[in-house]
Structures are given as C-alpha cells and as structure tokens.
Design goal:
Layout: E1 4-9, H1 14-25, E2 30-37, E3 45-48, E4 51-57, E5 68-71, H2 75-87, E6 91-94, E7 123-125, H3 129-145, E8 147-156, H4 163-177, H5 212-225, E9 231-238, E10 245-253, H6 259-267, E11 272-274, H7 286-289, E12 295-302, E13 309-316, H8 320-333
Parallel strand pairs: 1-2, 1-5, 2-4, 5-6, 6-7, 8-9, 11-12
Antiparallel strand pairs: 3-4, 8-10, 10-13, 12-13
Helix pairs in contact: 1-8, 3-5, 3-8
C-alpha cells in the first residue's frame, strides 16, 4: 500500500481512540495524520506512534489534501462534513448511521461484501456494530445453505453508547453496592445490575413497535448480504457490560445444516473464530473478546423446534470489529 494522508474525525471519542490504536497496530501506511474533533477538544494532544499530535477543530477545510477520512463523530456531524470532505477528493469511511441506507452509499463489511467498496462516490458507510458481527458469521452459512430467516436478540455493552455511558455504569454500580441513590443522565432507567430493552437511549421506538436499533439490524443485514429475501427480526438490549456485544441468533436455512457442518464452515471463515467445546465449558465471552479483532461464535446447535435451523452465540468487541477495526479494514481495501 502506498502512504496516504489520513484524517480521523471524532478522534477524542471512544471509537476515535480505537481507530488510532488500530492504525498503529496495523502499521497503516500514513504520510500525514490529522486528528479532528469539536471545539471542546481544541488544545488537546493525542499520542500516535510515540508522537504528540494536536487535535484540530473539525471544519470543511480540514480535509484539503486528505486521502481518506475515518469518521466517528455522530450522524449530524457526518451529514454536515462528509459531503464537504468528499467534494475535496477525500474518501470518507463513516461510522455513524447517517449514510448506511443511502442507496448511493456502499455499506461494507470486508469479510462479506468487499466488492461494494468499488461503488463508492466519496462516502462509504460502516454498519451498525451488532449487524457487523452477525453478518460475518451469517455470510458463509448463507453461501452454503441459503439463509431464509434470522431471529436475533442482542446483549449490547454500554461502551456502544459512548464514554458517558461507561462512566454512568461505573458510577451507578458503585452507588448500588454502597447503598446510595443513583443518578441517571445517559440511560432512561438504571443500567447497573439491569437490562434495558431500549437502544438508543432516547427517541428509540418507531410505529411498528421496534426500536431504531432493531430496524438497523433488519435493513442493514439485507443490504450487506445483498439479499432482500432474507427475513430478519431483532430484539436489542443494553446490558451492564463494559465492552463486547453478545448475540443469540437463530438461523433458518433452505438446505439443512448440521451443527457439525456449520462448525466446519465457520472454522474456515475469514474473521471468525469458533469457540465451541461444551465439555470444557468453552464458548464466546465478552470478557475474552475484548481487545480482539475477530468475531467469536459458539453454542452452535440444531434447533430442536425446527427441521432446518441452527442456534448460536456470537460475541465481538463492539469498539473494534463493531467500529474501529471494520473502518480501518475498509481503508485498507481502499
């Protein structure tokens, strides 16, 4: 790869910080690096490869001379600044939901639809974190046996809601253990020692009773897999876990797959690690997935209620494969 001029928009956030770490870990060929954030971060510096780099204020002109911009600054910011960056010849890889369902914008998971990168017109969308880890596992099964229907329930870590959400979980946990009253600022209900079937934290639900997060999983899965015939239903839940999303997934296929065959297929799939040894209590765990690039799958079993369906448990680091790593993978494809 030839060296590129890179910008990271939202560099001071949780995902922005992980993007910098992945770029460094991957030794991405960088000619120059711009770190961009809101006015609040003006004057801060961040360290990259031992060098202190000042954080600049995000403006339209910040993308002059930039080849690739990695965005993790929220949907409104992306709507405003991504087109300006693209107009200046920069390719934007955006981590927000702003562009995912735009028919002109490819929605890319490199293990699933790398060819879609070539269709970009200046902006490429990074999918929802929960969708990413699911489709990495679904794609090889779909290729082998044609998936007809997916039923997924998620157990999503608070880090998916940002730094303030992580702080709220920690503060509430301490308060509950100390017998103190809790403060709620990020989530509508107590998150410590609790599960909230509402994502995002506000304005979550649409007219059909699903949440916007659930509908993202439905619509994004079809777009990424390139198959509108796949039926998807989803229930998304926030749980008191720091990092690492977990999913219970039921997959109905046109051709019956045995659990053994599914393990064989997934054992050869890019970006997937099978952890499925019940005799030794080996299965994917959020604590074990933390800091790792792969998506982990286990508890693979044949659905006893259906002649051609499988149940499985899928876990991934939502800040890495669910965000920063997938974004950098797209940059590597570029």
């Amino acid at each position: 790869m030839s060296a590129k001029s890179i910008a990271v928009a939202g560099a001071t956030g949780l995902v922005g910080g992980q993007m910098l770490k992945v770029l460094e870990d991957r030794d991405f060929p960088i000619k120059s690096l711009k770190l961009l954030a809101s006015e609040r971060s003006k004057g801060r510096t961040l360290t990259f490869k031992g060098e202190s780099i000042p954080v600049e204020v995000l403006t339209e002109d910040a993308f002059d001379g930039v080849d690739i911009a990695l965005f993790s600054a929220g949907g409104g910011t992306s709507k405003r600044f991504a087109p300006a960056a693209a107009e200046r010849g920069c390719v934007v890889v955006d981590n927000s939901s702003a562009w995912r369902m735009d028919p002109e914008v490819p929605l890319v998971v490199p293990e699933v639809n790398p060819h879609a990168v070539k269709q970009h017109k200046g902006i490429i969308a990074n999918p929802n974190c929960s969708t990413i880890q699911m489709v990495v596992v679904l794609k090889p099964l779909h290729d082998a046996a044609a998936i007809k229907r997916v039923v997924v329930s998620t157990y999503q870590a608070v880090s998916g809601a940002g730094i303030k959400a992580v702080d709220e979980l920690m503060e509430q946990s301490r308060a509950v253990l100390d017998g103190q009253s809790i403060r709620k600022e990020v989530f509508p209900h107590q998150i410590a020692f609790n599960c909230l079937p509402q994502i995002p934290q506000s304005n979550a639900f649409v007219d059909n009773g699903y949440s916007t997060e659930e509908m993202k999983m439905v619509n994004e899965t079809k777009k990424i897999m390139g198959d509108d015939a796949i039926r998807v239903t989803s229930t998304t839940v926030r749980v008191p876990v720091h990092t690492g999303h977990s999913e219970s997934v039921n997959v109905e296929t046109e051709r019956k797959l045995s659990a053994h065959e599914a393990r064989e297929i997934l054992g050869k799939a890019p970006g997937v690690t099978v952890q499925d040894d019940l005799a030794n209590e080996v299965y994917p765990l959020a604590t074990e997935a933390h800091g790792k690039y792969d998506t982990f799958v286990g508890r693979i079993r044949e659905d006893i209620s259906h002649p051609s369906a499988l149940d499985m448990w899928i876990v991934s680091d939502n800040l890495l494969k669910g965000a920063a790593w997938n974004t950098v993978q797209i940059a590597e494809l570029l």
